[in-house]
Amino acid sequence: MIEKILVANRGEITCRVMRTARAMGIRTVAIYSDADADAPHVRMADEAVHVGPAPASQSYIDIGKVLGAVRQSGADAVHPGYGFLSENRRFAEALAAEGVTFIGPPASAIEAMGDKITSKKLAAEAGVSTVPGYMGLIADADEAVRIAGEIGYPVMIKASAGGGGKGMRIAWNEREARDGFQSSKNEAAASFGDDRIFVEKFVTQPRHIEIQVLADGHGNCVYLGERECSIQRRNQKVIEEAPSPFLDEATRRAMGEQAVALAQAVGYQSAGTVEFIVDGQRNFYFLEMNTRLQVEHPVTELITGLDLVELMIRVAAGEPLPFRQEDVRLNGWAIESRLYAEDPYRKFLPSIGRLTRYRPPEEVREEGRVVRNDTGVEEGGEISMYYDPMIAKLCTWGPDRETAIGHMRTALDDFELEGIGHNLPFLAAVMDHPRFVSGDITTAFIDEEFPEGFAGATLDKETLARISAAAAAMNRVAEIRRTRISGRMDNHERKVGTRWVVTLADQRHEVRVEADREGATVHFGDLRSMRVTSRWRPGEPLARLEVDGASLTLKVSRIPNGYRVRHRGADLKVHVRTPRMAELASLMPEKQAPDTSRMLLCPMPGLVVRIEVDEGDEVQEGQALCTVEAMKMENILRAERKAVVTKVNAAPGDSLAVDDVILEFG
């Protein structure tokens, strides 16, 4: 059996692999860059080796440095995780030359399936249904535009060695094809060291469904059901679930059998994933094969009861699979929400900074409920611009889809994260969205439901009323505490007022609060009342309450005369004032935001790659002005209207913060 595993990765997947290795009695080795010297995965390992500066190209994907760490540590096996070197044939071959076990597929399978052009040809030969496209390499943007026109827009421009949404663009016209080719090429070179690009037809209204396969070195290969990964933005998955709410058993079996046939055709061993596009009639088309462990593998583990990392290790050690296809059983439903360091209120652009508060929900495994959080960060840690923006993968399991969604709602409510922009509000909003709840989703879900970006969820009137009652009761607790601290009174129950005006969203409630030792009853002007109980104390950022017997969890922070309250994707200012204060507040003018219409502001922290204009240039609406790179993704900033550039405040190579002024216009 393998004795020591070096995990050639970072963050949550490294911690995930190490947990299984530790349970198997196998020692672990971490590698780390300058930026990760104090990271949790480094402390979790039995030993750690420094491999270079922060940029991944100079550390984590430098094969020579990783091999040096293998030699230094004496590891007899390497698990690559995902991303970085996980699908690099040369890395697998280099390990074999060193006599070190690669916990993954043979180099020949990586070469065949890791290259998306080759994999499509092999899939067609194996009888797997494939998407129409141009399978040759494309030399330049002109050729990309010509081929895209022949295939017919829309098209998908993809890096041949890509994965995880990197080096991928959808083009709906010639301009987007030209721009997308260059951006995809640049991202592919930066992320994978391979800038080859190909083009295929983009299937509209598709669902992204993938099959998990597992094969050993003894001729056994099985499929472990499917995962629905249709909730995506920028071609990167956000929410996944297993099984799919769309497939029937016949389609599941057909997709699984084709996935196994493809794996066997290339002599595959280890865990891998065959991805398909599925249309509204359940016709499915091969997309690509990922010759590695997938980010979303936990949902498959939750519905099968299998540990895929353990099985990968055992297969790499030469053991046969301990079961056959007929032994595979799918139990219940699992959902994964990817928590990203990105601001949904700024069109999901990356965010960096320090995690001033990081308190995931408690992990639970009990009858009828599982809560699992795979993570590689901790409170006080920093999210840098150098790596993928994923912070954690929050997973829940229930006996059916409705229950699993309910558990996810509760877990997201309980997840505390402060210090950076993040997508927790968006994830919570999706869990309540009627289309998601019904399972009526496609890969265009985010674009269709949030075409102008995410501006927060709109809560129904009843929920707003419950929040009003909670805020009134919480305010009374805070007022009692304040008067006690001031020492101004002996009988605080008599001195603190009972009548208040609560305003939030478009609602205004005149309330009367009757408090007792067990809680408070909040009476509304329309003669209804709500009973509120809670152990919340002023200053606590998470308030768990019962309102009329139903649980309500709020993220709370103090603002003048009230609270900032976040709940289920909504971000609210809730003011609780005395009647006289409310009367005066209604007379105050609203503060106007500064005019930035004549400026190009940096929408996220990042590095300036290119400035496309000079001072004095006249620009047209839609014209490219600047390219900013953040977390390995290039973002082209365009002119919103016709204007003249009066000042250029940045240059290629500059590091910018959010809202730094790049250009000024006259």
What is the fold's blueprint, element by element?
Elements: E1 4-7, H1 11-23, E2 27-33, H2 40-44, E3 47-52, H3 63-73, E4 77-79, H4 89-97, E5 101-102, H5 107-114, H6 116-125, E6 133-134, H7 141-151, E7 155-163, E8 166-171, H8 174-192, E9 197-201, E10 207-215, E11 221-233, E12 236-242, H9 249-265, E13 270-278, E14 284-290, H10 297-304, H11 308-316, E15 333-340, E16 342-343, E17 349-350, E18 353-354, E19 357-359, E20 364-366, E21 369-375, E22 382-383, E23 390-398, H12 401-414, E24 416-418, H13 424-432, H14 434-438, H15 445-449, H16 461-486, H17 492-495, E25 499-504, E26 507-516, E27 519-524, E28 529-534, E29 542-547, E30 550-559, E31 562-567, E32 570-577, H18 579-585, E33 599-601, E34 606-611, E35 618-619, E36 624-630, E37 633-638, E38 643-648, E39 655-656, E40 661-665
Parallel strand pairs: 1-2, 1-4, 2-3, 4-5
Antiparallel strand pairs: 6-9, 7-8, 7-9, 10-11, 10-13, 11-12, 12-15, 13-14, 15-23, 16-17, 18-22, 19-24, 20-21, 21-23, 25-26, 25-32, 26-27, 27-28, 28-29, 29-30, 30-31, 31-32, 33-40, 34-36, 34-39, 35-38, 36-37, 38-40
Helix pairs in contact: 4-5, 5-6, 7-8, 12-13
